[in-house]
Amino acid sequence: xxxxxxxxxxxxxxxxxxxxxxxxxxxxxxxxxxxxxxxxxxxxxxxxxxxxxxxxxxxxxxxxxxxxxxxxxxxxxxxxxxxxxxxxxxxxxxxxxxxxxxxxxxxxxxxxxxxxxxxxxxxxxxxxxxxxxxxxxxxxxxxxxxxxxxxxxxxxxxxxxxxxxxxxxxxxxxxxxxxxxxxxxxxxxxxxxxxxxxxxxxxxxxxxxxxxxxxxxxxxxxxxxxxxxxxxxxxxxxxxxxxxxxxxxxxxxxxxxxxxxxxxxxxxxxxxxxxxxxxxxxxxxxxxxxxxxxxxxxxxxxxxxxxxxxxxxxxxxxxxxxxxxxxx
Length: 328
Known about the structure:
44% helix, 6-stranded mixed beta sheet, 11 helices, alpha/beta, Rossmann fold, 2 domains, 17% strand
């Protein structure tokens, strides 16, 4: 009898948590937990979430780790939001495996979770909203092959070890380059980490490894799979006088990266739509809480941006989102 009463108590708690905020007199409270809080990418996700929250008249609690490799901090944040009994959680997991347990804990007490940006190894989620990161890597590989006329030696600087999103981009790039017999990847085992400084240092070391006695580079192309590695590599190329002399494709955007595309120092950026990702994260979760049918996987798309198309209105808006409008 005691076990039965305990079970019923937990069940009632779960139901009440899962339904909280659905009344007319109480707003939904949704936690949004990004991987980090410093890069422009996460600010764009924040803006999209804020836009949706305003339209749907719900409250959001935005809080993320300072560093994108701080798994323990992000786990603590998820557990803290569970303790706060929020209506739901939108999460960009740092580690697809490590965050599965706290997400399972949330689901266990009736708090639904929508995953954005990077995949989670869990069947306890409502929906996964993100770029098709593998396809993004394929786009980068095909574009680099086009620039190099299907031949040449290339290097790839990886992002953070264990990050599902960047690992998918890296694999998409590597698989694509294999399709071109005249191309070869001569280095793909170095990691740039998650800050521009670690990305810069790794880029310096990598470039030095392929520098001849005369100072020329023995490589023809470079791919970096996220904002921090792309900017770190850009700085290393600029400091060593190689910017614009080797084909270079990056991933994600920032003001300085877009400027480098305009100057011909970066040939292309594979750009996501993080603001749409944040917007759909909130909209999807609210829809779920209201009993609507939700797609388990939503692809927010990826675009190859070059100096030739960067001023087109649609791409210009993607590169220069109006963050101040939503992040007051």
